[in-house]
Amino acid sequence: QGDPIPEDIYEILGGGSVRSISDLQRALRIDSVEEDSSSLTLNATQPGENPVALSRERRSLDALAAAETAVLAECKTREVVFEISRNMVDSTNANFVVWPPCVEVQRCSGCCNNRNVQCRPTQIRVRHVQVNKIEFVQRKPKFKKVVVPLEDHVQCRCEAVFRPPPRNIRPGPREQRRLSPSFTTAAVSQRQRVRRPPAQKRKHKKYKHVNDKKVLKEILIA
Q: Which residues contact 114 (CB under 8 A, 6 or more apart)?
């Protein structure tokens, strides 16, 4: 396994100047691209070499030579297929058919050689097209022209991707008081200090007029 990719390599690849393998070689200051070492011995047959393995290596090299060089899909506008939904034509009715059901629009796509940027539109144009809304009345088709807006991307650019920082969820004042040890201890000690008088010493409101404690005790016991 290779070493981790340095961060400056991502900056070089994301600069926009690397569009081909030769540009990549110049950016990384590489003289040539390394090839399979097995290709160096294919032209010279050596004693004891397996002819089946040699034939397999020749076929793989022939396939490599016949394959075309990959080209970077740069950030630009391209034609894509866009489906015209019935909601775009009439959001209050679903008993109809749209024709044509899909059209071509221009949209930004491509890679930016950098994980921190994405291909995004910098200029957008809205154009209007006519589509057919086909309804069936008494089993007979009824055509109606409807104008639908379409969005085309005009210009594109690799722009930085905004990633919001992670949010730290902190407890509110009530939760802090609930979780605070000092608050809990103080509340418990406060409750312990508050003592109610014994039940027998409290006078009943109904017998406030009785001044003799002995008589009052006999009334309450009875």
A: 10, 11, 13, 14, 158
